[in-house]
Amino acid sequence: MSLASPIQEPKKSAIDWRSLRDDFPALHQIVHGHPLIYFDNAATTQKPRFVIEALRSFYERDNANVHRGVHELSNRASAAYEAARARAAQFIRAKSADEIVFTRGTTEAINLVAQSWGPKNLRPGDRILLTEMEHHSNIVPWQLLAERVGAQLIFLPISDDKGLLDLNRLDEWLTPQVKILAITHISNSLGTVNPVAELCRRARRIGAVTLIDAAQSAGHCPLDVQEIGCDFLAFSGHKMCGPTGIGVLYGRHELLEAMPPYQGGGDMISTVDFHRSTWNRVPHKFEAGTPHISGAVGLHAAMDYLDRIGRKNIAQRDHELAAYAYERLSRLSGLRLFGPHVGRAGLVSFLAADVHAHDLVTVADQRGIALRGGHHCNQPLMKQLGVEATARASFYFYNLEEEIDRFVDALREIQKFFSR
Ligand code: 7TS
């Protein structure tokens, strides 16, 4: 499919996933003598020409700083930057563009909440509720906050290798001391899709604030912050066909309004005196210094690109690829698979007997297959699973079943080689 022919809500068969690959220049290359198979999409996705062209066009025509000039180029850059904000609001169905703060990515968005909302709202003895499957980016900012204010971190346990949260026991953790629940929507190691709307609903009942880490979901399924009922939501552009260095913090307006600035300088002020300053209105209060203007422009293009394919279709494609990979891998002997059997997001995490995850991905790389091996910034989760690392293949809509076949064949050969 090309972007010249936008598709609204096509049925499964209406999308020619193979021809979509033509939109991605990086997919068509030879690596170590083999056609590239890019299965590291949970780390970052490849970029379509549509996004690359948007960046090029911005730098060739409209490049200027935002919100300060009165000249034509500055006006164009400002308009493009604010259009991206409005598009991001629409993308996650926020009520207003003022609820969208541009950040460097998910990690910075979570740090912003922890450092700005946290100290004002947490007292010694209060609790921060996370889950055992969080990425370090949704653990370490809360550890820094807990140390600063004397709060305590607690973790919702996962069941077992299937990696589901035990909602029957949620009330044991959701006590009145819990002031914030911060959870991942999709686990980057297990592929678990958490029932975030249900979790937010239950947290709200005890008056806790909620934050959703949507790093792995924003580019993979429709997101509606009003339906989820969260207070904050964070995502990164680079994991959804957009550029690196740009991300979004969604925050409910009244919460953002009550929060102090995160960093000082640049456009976040209203007035500055030698000893005192006053703040710009939300969301500019949280955007100190020259922002990543081209990043916002590229993210805008990425959101348009994804919505022309349809995020429902992308979610379905993710499920198809993951189910196919899971089914093929589960027929190999000596393989331990992590995460849910069904309803998984588009990735598989596994360990092969006799082969360290790092060796496995190194040999796979020699066959042109890009996997990831390691703790995936989930060290506490790895400890819970009783492993040091896993190998991971993470898919996006441009991957094909035949790439999974080639990957499974390579895996079989690698197993044979290491078991000698
Ligand atoms: N949260 C989750 C669930 C993630 O998977 C990641 C990155 C982040 C937060 C951080 O995102 P960033 O854009 O701010 O860096 N996950 C991965 C991964 O799985 N492999 O490399 C990065």
CATH-derived architecture of the largest domain: 3-Layer(aba) Sandwich
CA gyration radius, whole angstroms: 22 Å
Bound molecules: ligand 7TS
The biggest sheet, with number of strands, parallel, antiparallel or mixed sense and barrel status, is: 7 strands, mixed
The first-level CATH class of the largest domain is given as: Alpha Beta
β-sheet strand percentage = 15-25%
Tally of DSSP helical segments: 14
Strand order of the largest sheet: 4-10-9-8-7-5-6
Strand-pairing-aware structural class: alpha/beta
Task: Tell me the overall shape.
Answer: globular
Give the rounded overall mean pLDDT: 94
Output the CATH topology of the largest domain. Answer: Aspartate Aminotransferase, domain 2
Sum up the structure in keywords.
2 domains; binds ligand 7TS; disordered N terminus; seven-stranded mixed sheet; single chain; Aspartate Aminotransferase, domain 1; alpha/beta; globular; four-stranded antiparallel sheet; 17 strands
Write the layout of secondary structure elements.
Blueprint: H1 17-20, E1 30-31, E2 34-35, E3 37-38, H2 49-62, H3 72-91, E4 100-103, H4 106-121, E5 127-131, H5 140-149, E6 152-156, H6 170-173, E7 178-184, H7 196-205, E8 209-213, H8 225-228, E9 232-236, E10 247-251, H9 253-258, E11 269-272, E12 277-279, H10 293-309, H11 311-330, E13 335-338, E14 347-352, H12 357-366, E15 369-370, E16 372-374, H13 379-385, E17 390-394, H14 401-418
Parallel strand pairs: 3-15, 5-6, 5-7, 7-8, 8-9
Antiparallel strand pairs: 1-2, 4-10, 9-10, 11-12, 13-14, 14-17, 16-17
Helix pairs in contact: 2-10, 3-10, 4-5, 11-14
Bound molecules: ligand 7TS.
